[in-house]
Amino acid sequence: MRNKIKFVVFYLVVLFLSIYISSCSDLDTNIPPPPYVNVHSEGIDSINSPNWHGNLVKQYNYNLMVCQDCHGPDYSGGLVEQSCLGCHVLPQGPENCTTCHGTLESSAPPRDLDGNTSTSFPGVGTHQNHLRFNTSGRAVLCSECHNIPGGLFTPGHIDTDQPAEVIFNGPVSLTVTNEPNTSQYDDSLPLYMPDPSFDYSVLTCSNTYCHGYFKNGNTENAPVWNDPSTAQCGSCHGDGSNPLPKRQSEGGTHPSNANCYQCHGGVVDQNLNIINPTKHIDGLLNLYGSDINY
Q1: Assigned domain for 154 exists
Q2: How far apart are CA 196 and CA 269, in angstroms?
Q3: pLDDT tens digit sequence for 77-136
Q4: Rounded to the nearest 5 degrees, what angle is found at the Cα of 129, between the Cα atoms of 123 and 135?
Q5: Cα of 64 vs its chain's centroid, Å
Q6: Is 231 within the bounds of a domain?
Q7: Considering the entire predicted model, what is its pTM?
Q8: Cα Rg, the chain, nearest whole Å
């Protein structure tokens, strides 16, 4: 009896396996795998392609949140397991300032947002002459003309229209001259209190101490941002042939002595070369070796 029961159980097991294996053999194992889904066009990783991802990001007004949806909040791969950090190796990865403008040496243009490098383009202009290669005066900080964002998504950065807002935050551009409490005060002249502005339509800077709005200076001077010839020596005080600030005959009080180095030897030599840019256009008057308010 026991052997009969074992035989029946064995028979049922064999029958079940036979049915199962037979059923599996009927399955279609030739079904192709699902197609690879690519949301990007060909050339997304080629800077020479119109489909380069830099152009795509620009279309989204540099809002990299659309990238984070697939590549992860830190751009390390995310859902698609494709990291952006292999190329974007600087701090903050794709959100580093130089991703969109500037270079590894400076986050200020050139390059501008359109990739331009020529100073004739408004987005480039004379950024580097102010910031790094200023041979005529002290170097200017980015924060003196712009509100510097703490990050890509800081309010007022990518969420506002171009061009960048020019906001004169620097104390030098706002330097007041001919104040009554200064040793060089002259009651025949008014108080010169700059009110800097930038005209986007003609790209001019005006009413700023840096470019002539000071005692005995060329207060009407308005240099053009992308034309360095409008800010040559003599544009802020004097003229193209004579660097002297306004003398009495011109409505000012500066002496007629053209040997600038005799009084301002800490800044200029006898050939009118600026020998110490840090003491020029700095909000102070370098007189006989001392820096004073005037």
Answers
A1: no
A2: 30
A3: 999 999 999 999 999 999 999 999 999 999 999 999 999 999 999 999 999 999 999 888
A4: 175
A5: 17
A6: no
A7: 0.79
A8: 34
